[in-house]
Amino acid sequence: MIFDRSCAHEWVHRLLPILEVALGYKKALPVRQLTSMKEFVEKFPFVKKVILDGTERPVQRPQDNEKQKEYYSGKKKRHTSKHITGSTNEKRIIYLSKARRGKIHDKKQLDEENLVEYIPDDVAIEGDLGFKGLEKEYENVYLPHKKPKGKELSALQKIQNRELSRERVKCEHAHGGIKRYNCVTAVYRNRVPDFDDRLMLNYTGLWNFYLDAA
To answer: Is the entire prediction scored with pTM above 0.85?
Structure first.
């Protein structure tokens, strides 16, 4: 059976809410916001490590000059929409932030989400240098060592960076699992408010459901 574009568009918008309800029933959807440490422990009693990372997807360049500046990601050198994710060692994504415009820095977006303050102290938090400064605010945060200007990292620091990189690659695998779906890798052109955010939420849920069923 062949669908034309308008028909496919109509069915996606009709079926996406049903998919979201089903994934929620299967407890496959990531949380969008935490309100307390107690809530974290209740939802994720066996999680002992959270790997934080940002992920971006390309969007159509806005025609408005000021708006396009907000969507332009210096990291990706294109216009994007950005999420912060929290993954486990099992590559399951337990947290997904709301979609933000690509210009926002990872650390600023994370601060505005108030996520880290609700993760218990006995849960290790790992991230990349996009969250630089977070390790000064929380004792359970582990980030790579940044090479000093004009100097080299010590042998121990290089070893620690390699070990952290081996751990953090699991979140990259999780992002790769989500982006097997074309809806979250192709340039986003839809103008329905918040629809890009709901797409990312549902496809993250599908990835988690895949892990549960594997």
So the answer is: yes
